[in-house]
Amino acid sequence: MTEQRRGRRGRVAASAPQRQVDYRNLRSPFPTMNAISEDRVEALHEAALTILEETGIKVLHDEARTFYEKGGARVSDDMVFIGRDMIEAALATAPRSITVKGGAPHRDITLELGRIVFQPGAGCPHATDLDRGRRPGTLRDFRELVQLTQSFDVLHMVPPLVEAQDVAMNLRHLAMTEIQLTQSDKVPFLYSRGTPQVMDGFEMIRDFRGLTDAEFRAQPWCYTIINTNSPRTIDLPMAQGLIDFARNGQPSIVTPFTLMGAMAPVTVAGAITLSHAEALAAITLTQLVNPGAPVCYGTFTSNVDMKSGAPAFGTPEHFSASLVAGQLARKIGLPWRCAGGSAANIADAQAANESQFALWGCLLAGATITIHSAGWIEGGLSISYEKMITDLEVLQMVAELCAGTPATEGDIALDAIRDVAPMGHFFGAQHTMDRYQTQFYEPLVGDWSNFGTWTERGGIDASTRATGIWKRKLAEFQPPATDSDRLSALEQFVARRTAEGGANPES
Amino acid sequence: MTEQRRGRRGRVAASAPQRQVDYRNLRSPFPTMNAISEDRVEALHEAALTILEETGIKVLHDEARTFYEKGGARVSDDMVFIGRDMIEAALATAPRSITVKGGAPHRDITLELGRIVFQPGAGCPHATDLDRGRRPGTLRDFRELVQLTQSFDVLHMVPPLVEAQDVAMNLRHLAMTEIQLTQSDKVPFLYSRGTPQVMDGFEMIRDFRGLTDAEFRAQPWCYTIINTNSPRTIDLPMAQGLIDFARNGQPSIVTPFTLMGAMAPVTVAGAITLSHAEALAAITLTQLVNPGAPVCYGTFTSNVDMKSGAPAFGTPEHFSASLVAGQLARKIGLPWRCAGGSAANIADAQAANESQFALWGCLLAGATITIHSAGWIEGGLSISYEKMITDLEVLQMVAELCAGTPATEGDIALDAIRDVAPMGHFFGAQHTMDRYQTQFYEPLVGDWSNFGTWTERGGIDASTRATGIWKRKLAEFQPPATDSDRLSALEQFVARRTAEGGANPES
């Protein structure tokens, strides 16, 4: 739900009607855009199948290779050659609709083509804000960013917004999972950094949600991101993650990271062909492990600056790659993830424009999940608190569009148009009076005052206003209500596992 | 054309292949988005016809009322009641495709559904930049802004970017038209501020383009913007403009300015119904004056802040209104204009986000001309030089999307994918080497350097970099080649008319 409207004196007007728009269950109102023709989509798909059959994927993980081999693949050393029959069988069993459970019914999300799900920026080693500056991410930053994620309905899943670099790697997963469960009731994330860490995560979630083992495995309660190593490699932790999550009925979001000209061909069609091949291989593994296991298709494809090798985002190529990936996602019918984001170094007009341009690529591509949709900057090296807020404004406005445009006779307002004289105005018309309190979206950070008023108030720009907003949100933050026994049990688990030495990441 | 690529040392690499993307002739690659169902589109159209028939339009202009009456309308005092037969007849004669001539063949533009034409911000009383601050617009500002408009292929028409407030009203049209003709070869604009000013403008354009009267009238060589006075009024200069331009075969871009809750109903459907009715009335007048006269449909519909009355742009309501207008434009089949823009007071993330959000509304609405697409700020009270540059980046990226995504076998790059080993890279692949110099869009103002490099270079944000860009563009500016006789003739015309006292605006 959107925030309650505040009257002119800042109080919530008790009797004023409340504008209520659902920001949680978003169904895309946008048409999908085709960048290439249907027969070229077929050609890309065929090329990907040919790559898998003839050129193969390097799979470092023994058990994964065994799964592929038992499924009919040809294996030679660590190269796996997957036939199209296996791919088609996997695409036939992979579910088209995945409901991932949160900590409360209204936090459950459904992943399927046609839905829109937003995640803020993720995977950033640094955090930055206008108060404290740029710094390596800490657990405190992660806690705050999870609280901010919790505070906005238009963010639907919790990602690893920032790496808690001040917590040792053997304990970080414990700390970050604990925060996700206690500071948010939204769908939580687990890293795939080896089975021991994943099992810790599963256990924490299972117990905190009050589930039996069977109940946990019967439905999705969390997710992971699987990046293949482009080109054409699935490494140990990624294969282990695909296996562990599939075994336990939890979704992997398969995401080849294919930057054009770097780890992928320099063309959109080439990069997406490679990405598609790798994604199909990863999806197939999940279905070999557990036919019917939930899995999302995905890509993270953009271009680089060919002079410096620096990744670029929010470019025409990023947009086009998203569109082509969307066409392939619709061909195979699976929910899928795409990404927004910016390469800018500060939350300025470049950052805003690149991120929004990338977002529209995802929306018109029909992406189910748009990751990095708020806050992501420096090509993912930092997450900006201020940009999270200014990006959220755009996401909220997209959610408003999802609510649709009514055009009843009452909306057409023929009577009002008749009643207001030429060159009159509608401010006082009954039609207006009946509606004005709830008619329009009220901005989160946008300031519509005139130049004089704005100057008198200090001439404050959007990012600076955003600082005030995230601070206020954190100051007012109330964690979701939690069963105190489960809270204690969680704390005790973390303490015990910490004393035991946690679990080192595996690679 | 895009700018020539510069090699690492800043020189144009003489032998390097040049990236060439046509930014001039843009055909929309975007699907159109329907906000309401077809039968509700019909309902809005019907309601507009009913308003025109039964409630009427106030027409202050005697000759205009005569045209309507002779065409079959019922006239009572200054109220005109237009029957649907007249509207349908007008829509049947209004051309679906309008070619407006510039000063050179490559500057001609075609206005029809499916094309994309961009204009920068217009109608602003102030100009602002980070160097000189905010000030009432001057002729110097107008000259600079026209030069900037000329400097970017992705801006297709010249609008009245800023009012030259330091030139008296009886001479301003002469000065601003002279600048448009000498500093640019793009399609010029004339104000509709009374017949004498319009005739001055026609004469200047006719003679500068080297045309006879008949040649001038036979094709469009300029355009005007006609704002009806909502609700339900066409005032004197606007009616005179419709008549003068239609008589002379020059297009009016009909643009009701209908802010929801102010001069229009508070609902999207109501505001667009009113806008549609007024636009139909204005279009009908042009066809009564001269059946087949070029005319564009249009609207400028957004919402206001109901607490302050301040106009808002780049809102969900602005976006939705654009979509509905687009559905009506497609119903009647005419090229049409829509608008972008922002209510922000400074070129910050709000300004960027609002403008880009509004732009996407126009693109998905299938707008032919998107006005205010670069630089427009403070809800139109100022044009920002810096924002013009940062907005241009987005327009250029949209133009890149118009060029399409190739997916040939060469683009799919199967051989390259085969040749690069797992976990290798494509930087040195022949496929990459053959393409990298021209493969990607190079940003105008976007900076992709990493945080360290960016900090070393001064930590400069996008708007500050934009200052450097517009300054460089102005310093390097070369006006289009002009016939020196025509230049002298133009100067003499302006001098003579000035000595004669110019022409006062009429209202």
UniProtKB/TrEMBL annotation, chains A, B:
Its EC number is 2.1.1.-. The lineage of its organism: Bacteria, Pseudomonadati, Pseudomonadota, Alphaproteobacteria, Rhodobacterales. This is Methyltransferase. GO terms for biological process: methylation. The keyword Metal-binding does not apply. GO terms for molecular function: methyltransferase activity. It is an enzyme of class 2 (transferase). It comes from Lutimaribacter marinistellae. The keyword Transferase applies. Belongs to the trimethylamine methyltransferase family. Keywords: Methyltransferase, Transferase. InterPro entries: MttB-like_sf, MTTB_MeTrfase.
